[in-house]
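Researcher: I'm preparing a figure for a lab meeting and need a structural model of a single chain. I don't have an experimental structure, so a prediction will have to do for now. The sequence is pasted below. Please return the structure as tokens so I can convert it later.
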Amino acid sequence: MTAQKGSAFLLKISDGGSPAAYQTVAGLRTTQLSVAGETVVVTNKGSGGWRELLSGAGVRAVSVSASGIFLGSAAEAQIRANALAGTLADYELSFEDGEKLRGSFLVQRLDYAGDFNGERNYALQLESSGQVVPA
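Model: Understood. Here is the structure written out token by token.
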């Protein structure tokens, strides 16, 4: 496996059409993906003192964090509208090697900040709702 550029790790939002077209959320400088899961422990007397987990059980979730410079793009406006309305939207994460993940996400948090003599920036946190799958 070769090293991949962080700048090629893109967050995209669906236009809601069928078929969906995905627009890159512009201005992002950092993007992070976390996959987390809860485990179901099935340890019993016959486990020989070792913990056993049930494969495929529990709850899995994907979290996406991103931050960058506010450019006023249509994708950024859609994210802000979704955050204010508390609505789910379809997103795509794409990587330099061509791999893509798609799923429905809720904007968990959207922060704006700016300095008097600097740019306006933002940070957002997305939480998955339902299955996140390779595209």
